[in-house]
Design goal:
Chain A is 0% helix and 54% strand. Chain A has no helices and eleven strands. In chain A, the strands form two sheets. In chain A, strands 2, 4, 5, 9, 10 and 11 form a six-stranded mixed sheet that branches. Chain A has a five-stranded antiparallel sheet with strand order 1-3-8-7-6, with no helix packed on it. By secondary structure, chain B is mainly beta. The chains are: A mainly beta, B mainly beta.
Chain lengths: 112, 114
């Protein structure tokens, strides 16, 4: 079982839809959770950075962390064609010698 | 623009050759991370440097090495290249020394080994 799992998609939605992207993980020690957006052949761009459980909102984006279920989500409201990209979840323990573990990414297409 | 720069953007070389990829972190960031991204492996952490010292190692092959210089730029050296080394190589930087700190990625170097 991989440490971080993510449905690779592709996920296709109409413009204006609410998008739900999810990741599950196996290591209960993860404390820091991130979502990155990656456009084709570009570097990943940090969207959300959260600590422990709970919700965090930033504009049209909401990140949710449920540590009891080892499940994190990213919601995109009023999706736009410019949101079409691959979304990577990432997480870490943030100890001295830890590293960030990335999910494989979900490909999203928002159709005008 | 993340503030992280990488050169070159593209690199085409032959098997058995050696190449050097260069990364300049965001102003003020002390940590540099290197990642490899291929279609079948996703984003794989290779190595982290903090203020000139190696901090953490991931799935980095012995044929690969890296260093961070006093001006904080970093280089990733790939030698005895194989076809399977063809991938996107990303550099990221963060202000903290812990790997879980927010990381900002550069645009990447696309390496093609023929």
């Amino acid at each position: 079982q991989k440490e971080v799992e993510q449905d690779p998609g592709p996920l296709s939605v109409p413009e204006g839809a609410i998008v739900s992207l999810n990741c599950t993980y196996s290591n209960s020690a993860f404390q820091y959770f991130m979502w990155y957006r990656q456009y084709s052949r570009k570097g990943p761009e940090l969207l959300m950075y959260t600590y422990s459980s709970g919700n965090k909102e930033d504009g049209r984006f909401t990140a949710q962390v449920d540590k009891s279920s080892k499940y994190i989500s990213l919601f995109i409201r009023d999706s736009q064609p410019s949101d079409s990209a691959t979304y990577l979840c990432a997480m870490s323990i943030k100890t001295s010698y830890d590293k960030v573990i990335f999910g494989p990414g979900t490909s999203l297409s928002v159709i005008p | 623009d993340s503030g992280v720069t990488q050169t070159p953007k593209h690199l085409i070389t032959a098997t058995g050759q050696r190449v050097t990829l260069r990364c300049s972190p965001r102003s003020g960031d002390l940590s540099v991370y290197w990642y490899q991204q291929s279609l079948d492996q996703g984003l794989q952490f290779l190595i982290q440097y903090y203020n000139g010292e190696e901090r953490a190692k991931g799935n980095i092959l012995e044929r690969f090495s890296a260093q961070q210089f006093p001006d904080l730029h970093s280089e990733l050296n790939l030698s005895s290249l194989e076809l399977g080394d063809s991938a996107l190589y990303f550099c990221a930087s963060s202000g903290g020394r812990l790997a879980g700190s927010e990381q900002f990625f550069g645009p990447g170097t696309r390496l093609t080994v023929l």
